[in-house]
C-alpha cells in the first residue's frame, strides 16, 4: 500500500460520491457543489496516473500535472458561469417575472 | 548544533500542536460565538506561531525562514480581521 | 506501517469526510463550508502526490476563489434553494442511484489498482527537452511549450466565461458597473486588512509567477493571488471595477490570449509551426506570454468573481 493506492481509491470514491450528489440533489447550488467534487475525483485520477509516471528525476509525470492545472481553472470558469445563471434565475423568481 | 536545532523544532512544534488542539477543543466545547472565536483566534495564532518558530531552523536559508515568518504574519492578520468581523455580526444579532 | 502512510491515510479520510459532508449537509451554507475544507485538504493530498504546482492551484482556485464565489452565491440566495419538488427523487430511486454510483466507484477503484506496469510516462521526454525551454520547472514547460495549445484554449475559456457571466445581466443593466449595486459592507477591520494585505499579496503573486519558471508556481497561481488582492479591496469598498462597456477593460481581458496567439503566429513563420518558439528567443518569449497571461487571468478572475452588472450605467 502506498500513496498511489490510497489516493487512487479516494479518487474513485469521490467520483461515485460526486455523481450521486449531482443526480439526487434537487437544489442547483448543491448540484454544482457535487459536480465539483466529481471533478476533484477525476483530477485525482490524473494525479495518481502522473505519480505512477514519476521518473527522469521528477516526482511525477509533468504532462498530466499540467492538464490538471488547466482542468481546475476551466472547472472554476464553468462554475462561475453556472452560479451567474443560478443567481439570475433566483432574481427573476423573486421578481415574479419567471412564470 | 543540528541536534539542538532538531530538539528545538520538535519541542516548539509539539507545543504549537497543543495550542491548536486546545483552540479546536474550545471551538467545539465553548457555549457562545464570542468565546468560541476567542479560543480559536488566540490559541490558533499562538499554535501556528510556535510551529513556524519550530520550523524556522529547518528552512535551510534565512530567506526561507523569513518566508515562514511572513506566512504566520499573514495568517494572524487574516485571522484577526475575520474574527473581528464575525464578532461584530454576532454582537449585532444578539442585540 | 510507516509514518508517511499514516499521513496519507489521514489525509484521504479527511478529504472523503469533507466531501461526504458537502453532499449530505442540510443547509447550503454548511455544504459550501464543507467544500472549501475539501479543497484545502485536497491541496495537501496534491503535495503528497508530489505536485506542488497543482497543490497551489487547488488551494488558490479550488478552495480560495471558489469559496468566495460560492459563499457569495449562498448569501445572495438566502433561503431560496430553487429546488423543484418534482426534482426530488423518490427513496427507491435514490437507493438505486446510490447503488450504481457505488458500483462505478468500485469499478474505477479496481481499474486504478490494476493499471499495467510499467506505467506510461512522458517524464523522460519532458526532462530531455526541458533544457530547450531554459525553464527549470517541467510543469511550466508543458504548460507553455509542449502543450501550449491547451493553455491558450484555457485562457480563451476564461474570456468566454467572462462573456457568459456578463450576458446574464438584466437588459437595463447592460454596460454598467459589474457587481452588486449596494456598497459592499464597510467594516473597519476589513478596511484595515484591505489596506495592509494587498501590497504584500501583489508581491507574492508576482513572485509566484516569476518563480514558476524554476520552481512550483506560474501564471494561474500568481494571477489568482493578484485577483484575490483586488477582490479584497473591492469587498472593503476601496475600489470599484470599470463599467463593462469600458474598452480598456475589454482589452485587458483579451490581452493575454492575443499576445499568446501573436507569438504563436510568429512561430509559424520563424520556427517549426504555430505556437513553436524560435530557438534563440524561447525563454524571453515564454516570459512575455506568462506576463500577459497572468495579467489577463487576474482581470478575468476578478470579473468572474464580481459577477454581471446589476444597475444601469
Automatic annotation (TrEMBL), chain A:
The keyword Membrane applies. It comes from Roseococcus pinisoli. GO terms for molecular function: oxidoreductase activity. The chain crosses the membrane at residues 6-23, 35-54, 66-87. PANTHER family: ANTIPORTER SUBUNIT MNHC2-RELATED (PTHR34583). This is NADH-quinone oxidoreductase subunit K. Its main location: membrane. Belongs to the CPA3 antiporters (TC 2.A.63) subunit C family. The lineage of its organism: Bacteria, Pseudomonadati, Pseudomonadota, Alphaproteobacteria, Acetobacterales. Pfam families: Oxidored_q2 (PF00420). It is found in: Cell membrane. Keywords: Cell membrane, Membrane, Oxidoreductase, Transmembrane, Transmembrane helix. Its EC number is 1.6.5.11. It is a multi-pass membrane protein.
From TrEMBL, chain B:
It comes from the Bacteria. InterPro entries: PhaG_MnhG_YufB. It holds the Pfam family PhaG_MnhG_YufB. The chain crosses the membrane at residues 6-28, 40-57, 69-90. Keywords: Membrane, Transmembrane, Transmembrane helix. The lineage of its organism: Bacteria, Pseudomonadati, Pseudomonadota, Alphaproteobacteria, Acetobacterales. This is Monovalent cation/H(+) antiporter subunit G. It comes from Roseococcus pinisoli.
Automatic annotation (TrEMBL), chain C:
Residues 15-77 form the MrpA C-terminal/MbhD domain. Pfam families: MbhD, MnhB. The keyword Cell membrane applies. Its main location: membrane. Residues 190-304 form the Na+/H+ antiporter MnhB subunit-related protein domain. It is found in: Cell membrane. InterPro entries: CPA3_antiporter_subunitB, MnhB, MrpA_C/MbhD. The chain crosses the membrane at residues 6-24, 31-47, 59-79, 91-113, 151-169, 190-213, 219-239, 251-279, 285-306. Belongs to the CPA3 antiporters (TC 2.A.63) subunit B family. This is DUF4040 domain-containing protein. It comes from Roseococcus pinisoli.
Amino acid at each position: 500500500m502506498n500513496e498511489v493506492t490510497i489516493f487512487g481509491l479516494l479518487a474513485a470514491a469521490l467520483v461515485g460520491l460526486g455523481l450521486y450528489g449531482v443526480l439526487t440533489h434537487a437544489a442547483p447550488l448543491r448540484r454544482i457543489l457535487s459536480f465539483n467534487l466529481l471533478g476533484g475525483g477525476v483530477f485525482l485520477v490524473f494525479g495518481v496516473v502522473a505519480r505512477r509516471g514519476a521518473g527522469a528525476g521528477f516526482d511525477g509525470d509533468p504532462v498530466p500535472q499540467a492538464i490538471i492545472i488547466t482542468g481546475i481553472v476551466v472547472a472554476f470558469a464553468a462554475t462561475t458561469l453556472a452560479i451567474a445563471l443560478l443567481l439570475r434565475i433566483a432574481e427573476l423568481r423573486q421578481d415574479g417575472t419567471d412564470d | 548544533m543540528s541536534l539542538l536545532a532538531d530538539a528545538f523544532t520538535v519541542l516548539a512544534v509539539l507545543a504549537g500542536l497543543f495550542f491548536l488542539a486546545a483552540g479546536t477543543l474550545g471551538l467545539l466545547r465553548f457555549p457562545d460565538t464570542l468565546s468560541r472565536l476567542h479560543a480559536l483566534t488566540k490559541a490558533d495564532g499562538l499554535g501556528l506561531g510556535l510551529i513556524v518558530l519550530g520550523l524556522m531552523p529547518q528552512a535551510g536559508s534565512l530567506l526561507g525562514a523569513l518566508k515562514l515568518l511572513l506566512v504566520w504574519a499573514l495568517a494572524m492578520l487574516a485571522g484577526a480581521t475575520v474574527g473581528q468581523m464575525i464578532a461584530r455580526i454576532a454582537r449585532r444579532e444578539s442585540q | 506501517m510507516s509514518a508517511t502512510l499514516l499521513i496519507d491515510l489521514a489525509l484521504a479520510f479527511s478529504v472523503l469526510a469533507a466531501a461526504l459532508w458537502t453532499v449530505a449537509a442540510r443547509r447550503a451554507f454548511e455544504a459550501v463550508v464543507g467544500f472549501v475544507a475539501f479543497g484545502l485538504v485536497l491541496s495537501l493530498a496534491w503535495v503528497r502526490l508530489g505536485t506542488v504546482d497543482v497543490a497551489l492551484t487547488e488551494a488558490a482556485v479550488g478552495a480560495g476563489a471558489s469559496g468566495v464565489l460560492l459563499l457569495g452565491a449562498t448569501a445572495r440566495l438566502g433561503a431560496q434553494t430553487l429546488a423543484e419538488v418534482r426534482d426530488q427523487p423518490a427513496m427507491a430511486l435514490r437507493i438505486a442511484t446510490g447503488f450504481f454510483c457505488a458500483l462505478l466507484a468500485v469499478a474505477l477503484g479496481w481499474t486504478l489498482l490494476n493499471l499495467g506496469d510499467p506505467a506510461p510516462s512522458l517524464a523522460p521526454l519532458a526532462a530531455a527537452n526541458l533544457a530547450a525551454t531554459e525553464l527549470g520547472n517541467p510543469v511550466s514547460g508543458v504548460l507553455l511549450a509542449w502543450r501550449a495549445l491547451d493553455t491558450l484554449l484555457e485562457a480563451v475559456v476564461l474570456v468566454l466565461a467572462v462573456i457568459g457571466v456578463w450576458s446574464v445581466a438584466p437588459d437595463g443593466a447592460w454596460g454598467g458597473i459589474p457587481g452588486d449595486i449596494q456598497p459592499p459592507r464597510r467594516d473597519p477591520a476589513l478596511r484595515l486588512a484591505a489596506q495592509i494585505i494587498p501590497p504584500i499579496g501583489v508581491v507574492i503573486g508576482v513572485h509566484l509567477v516569476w518563480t514558476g519558471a524554476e520552481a512550483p508556481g506560474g501564471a494561474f497561481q500568481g494571477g489568482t493571488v493578484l485577483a484575490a488582492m483586488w477582490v479584497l479591496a473591492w469587498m472593503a469598498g476601496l475600489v470599484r471595477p470599470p463599467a463593462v462597456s469600458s474598452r480598456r477593460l475589454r482589452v485587458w481581458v483579451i490581452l493575454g490570449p492575443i499576445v499568446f496567439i501573436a507569438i504563436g503566429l510568429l512561430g509559424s513563420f520563424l520556427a517549426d509551426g504555430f505556437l513553436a518558439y524560435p530557438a534563440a528567443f524561447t525563454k524571453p518569449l515564454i516570459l512575455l506570454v506568462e506576463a500577459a497571461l497572468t495579467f489577463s487571468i487576474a482581470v478575468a478572475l476578478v470579473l468572474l468573481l464580481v459577477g454581471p452588472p446589476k444597475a444601469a450605467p
